Amino acid sequence: MRIITGYLLILLLIPAFIAVVILTYTEAGNAVSFSDTLDEKIDLSETKLSHTSLILASNDEVITEIYRPMNRSYAAGHEIPDFIKNVFIISEDRNFEKHPGFDLPAIGRALAINIHSDDIEQGASTITQQLARNQHLTHHKSYNRKLSEVLYAYQLEKSFSKAEILEQYLNAIYFHNNAYGIKAAADLYFKKAPAKLSEAEQTFLAAIPNNPSYYDPIKYFERTKKRQERLIDQLAQHGKIKSEAAEKLKKEPITLKVDSRKNLNPDYSSYALHELRELISEQENINNTNDLTARIEELLRSGVTIHTNLDIEMQKRTVQAVAAHLPEAKIQGAATVINHETGQIVAISGGKGYQSGDFNRAYQAFRQPGSSIKPLLVYAPYFERFDANRDSQINAGPLCIKGYCPKNYGGSTYGVVTLERAFINSYNTPAVRILQQVGVDEAFGDLKAFDFGKVTEQDRVLAAAVGGFTTGTSPLEMTSAYTVFSNKGLFLKPRAISKVTGYNGEVLYKWNDEPVQVWNPSTAEKVRSLLQKTVTSGTARKVAGAGPDAGGKTGTTNDFKDFWFIGFNGPLTAGVWVGKDQPESMENINHQSPHLLIWRDIVKK
């Protein structure tokens, strides 16, 4: 009885609504039309639709799809074939071109069925009403929602053309398996754009939204195929296709091509999303963590495209090199590769066997840098302030300063040596003497340009000359800083993101970094030549096969807990770290020099 009463009320309300829509009323000096009231009360700019965001490599290949929470990609009207538009009109709303948003005869037919079943079996919703429900309302079955649906549908018809409504509808409806809209469905099930679908494939997809879980093409292919054939028969019955063509369409094989969601380079994508937070925070001046997270989620739901500098082939080489030279289960590694000529981060390995969501060692692991810090904190500041060159001499003998007594590797002692010899053999006592001569604060002042995230005031001690930091540095930070030696002392912070665009293609965000002249070109060139000499004659001879102009610096921390190598070859600067997540000695593999072999395999020509 409640169902009957509800529909009787709807029958009474609908004619009254139509009368109000058609007729306008006025009162002296205070006239407000019903249409104006709807304009005021119903906001069509607010929708519930979300879109799939994408991360692209430098060649525009999609490497990651981000669903927040829906997989939806918008297809403009001209991208959607007319054939599938006709399928939906015939199957869902044959009076679509004529009605004002709702269809009274259809409501009457649905009322008769529902009264007979004593339940809300059919809702008689037009395409416009379904669009209103998907974009602005809910799917909860109630009379209040049904009336709201009618009002929203009327407002949609008043605001948009029939073609625009149909376009929005085909981008809103659900095709199951997290695919919303015809573009996402075509890609998910057939790996095609909508315009490339055959007519048989189009009708197959059109069979799903009527009852997405029941017509799930992956679980219940035959159900979906039978409904597709019924839709084809309807097209023939209404003269949209000939009966011969209908029989041919029904016999055409349907082959699904369903893959899992794309996440091809999780190491790199992980960092790109991290960098996105930094980009949004800087450009929108959002400092509160919760506010920033909410803003990022809002953007990802809006269907942005994150364009990155990823070089897919270089990424493969980097990931493979890390895996190939770290056979022991507990030993991990990370690598970053930067094109120092363009300032682009082109490859990142977050660790051996890295999976999406893992701890990304390339930018999240902060470890003692060992002697790899010497070019940045010791030698470049020294060359910048003193008239010295590679042949200048320095004392490499024993040293104690206020109880701090550093040792050279193996406890060896040396007399007076050239700066070149001290550098390429990574002697420690000369490095501490040089830092003392430069001044700890002066040298750390130079490091500010590189924005080391975990370097603090507590690190401003002489022990820092040999990598003794409170927390340490990350592989990405070290690699970024080393680009200064290949750019004549100029530092431009390397980036993974080139730009972020909206789903209409408009540029939303782009880095506006300004380069900083950290050291004079002559200083950078002196250090660069020492880095090259380290490869040909010093501690990095195992990478000499990478190329005649390669250069870099090794770093090994106390008890062999960390192995580093950062250097350049051609347009690339790459950094490699090897260690255990819980620091332990790796002396047993010291002779193998896995960090050098990884680096060589990444950058060799």
Automatic annotation (TrEMBL):
Q: What chemistry does it catalyse, as a reaction equation?
A: [GlcNAc-(1->4)-Mur2Ac(oyl-L-Ala-gamma-D-Glu-L-Lys-D-Ala-D-Ala)](n)-di-trans,octa-cis-undecaprenyl diphosphate + beta-D-GlcNAc-(1->4)-Mur2Ac(oyl-L-Ala-gamma-D-Glu-L-Lys-D-Ala-D-Ala)-di-trans,octa-cis-undecaprenyl diphosphate = [GlcNAc-(1->4)-Mur2Ac(oyl-L-Ala-gamma-D-Glu-L-Lys-D-Ala-D-Ala)](n+1)-di-trans,octa-cis-undecaprenyl diphosphate + di-trans,octa-cis-undecaprenyl diphosphate + H(+); Preferential cleavage: (Ac)2-L-Lys-D-Ala-|-D-Ala. Also transpeptidation of peptidyl-alanyl moieties that are N-acyl substituents of D-alanine
Question: Which is one Gene Ontology cellular component term of this protein?
Answer: plasma membrane
Q: Where does the record place the Glycosyl transferase family domain?
A: 61-235
**The protein's name:** Multimodular transpeptidase-transglycosylase
- PANTHER family from the entry? BINDING PROTEIN TRANSPEPTIDASE, PUTATIVE-RELATED, PENICILLIN-BINDING PROTEIN 1B
Compartment(s) of residence: Cell membrane
* KW Phosphoprotein (keyword) present: no
Penicillin-binding protein transpeptidase domain residues: 333-568
Q: What is its EC number?
A: 2.4.1.129, 3.4.-.-
Its main subcellular localisation, reduced to a broad class, is membrane
**UniProt organism field:** Mesobacillus selenatarsenatis (strain DSM 18680 / JCM 14380 / FERM P-15431 / SF-1)
Q: Name one GO biological process term.
A: proteolysis
